[in-house]
Amino acid sequence: MSQSSWKDQIKKQWGPHSHCPICGKAMPSDKQFCSQSCRDNYVISEKKQKKKGRYQMIFLFGMMAVMFLFLFILG
Ligand SMILES: [Zn+2]
Fold it and tell me: Across all residues in the chain, what is the average pLDDT?
């Protein structure tokens, strides 16, 4: 192995790259996730968060409705 190829390897390894948002592993910058399992994890967590957000919205609107009801009854 010549010195230039070794340097090229280092460049390849530490060149433009990004980190997996799930496990934090370094990966090629053109990829979104390092592996299929990380992609699955991301999709699952995103779905959960969306569900959570919807429940929070419903809860908030429910609270507001109750507040208005109380104001209406007491006023
Ligand atoms: Zn990953």
Answer: 87
Q: For the CA atoms of the chain, what is the radius of gyration? A: 25
**14 CB-near residues (< 8 Å, 6+ apart):** none
HSE-up of residue 17 (Cα within 13 Å, Cβ side): 15
Measured in Å, residue 32 CA sits from the centre of ligand 1 at 9
Q: How far, in Å, is the centroid of ligand 1 from the Cα of 36?
A: 8
- Report domain extents, the chain: 15-74
Beta-carbon neighbour count of residue 42 at 10 Å?
15
pTM equals: 0.52
